[in-house]
C-alpha cells in the first residue's frame, strides 16, 4: 500500500528533488500539504502531479 502522505525528508528521498525545491513548491501552492501537530506532510498524489508536470 502506497502512503498517502510523506514527511519532507521522505519526499526528498522518494522524488529526488531537493528540500529547497519542495519548500518553494509548497510556498507557491504547487504542492499540497497538511499539518498534523507540528509536522508538515506532503500529499503523495500532489507530489506525483508535481513530478509528472500536472501542476
Fold and architecture overview:
By secondary structure, the protein is α+β, with helices and mostly antiparallel strands. It has one domain (5-52). It has helices at residues 8-15, 19-27, 44-52, and strands spanning 5-7, 33-36, 39-43. The chain has a 3-stranded antiparallel sheet with strand order 1-3-2. Strand 2 and strand 3 form a beta hairpin. The termini are far apart. Residues 6-53 form the Helix-turn-helix domain. This is Helix-turn-helix domain-containing protein. InterPro entries: HTH_17. It holds the Pfam family HTH_17.
List the helices and strands and how they pair.
Elements: E1 5-7, H1 8-15, H2 19-27, E2 33-36, E3 39-43, H3 44-52
Antiparallel strand pairs: 1-3, 2-3
Give a short overview.
The chain is an alpha+beta fold.
What are the main properties of this structure?
about 55 residues; about 45% helix; globular; Helix-turn-helix domain-containing protein; HTH_17
Computed Rg: 10 Å
Structural class: alpha+beta
SSE string: EHHEEH
The total number of structural domains is 1
Shape: globular
The total of beta strands comes to 3
Count of helical stretches: 3
Helix content: 40-55%
Mean pLDDT over all positions: 95
What is the end-to-end distance? 24 Å
User: Major sheet, described briefly?
Assistant: 3 strands, antiparallel
The proportion of residues in beta strands is 15-25%
Low-confidence stretches: none
Instruction: Give the strand line-up of the largest sheet.
Output: 1-3-2
Protein name: Helix-turn-helix domain-containing protein
Pfam families: HTH_17
Organism: Novosphingobium aerophilum
InterPro entries: HTH_17
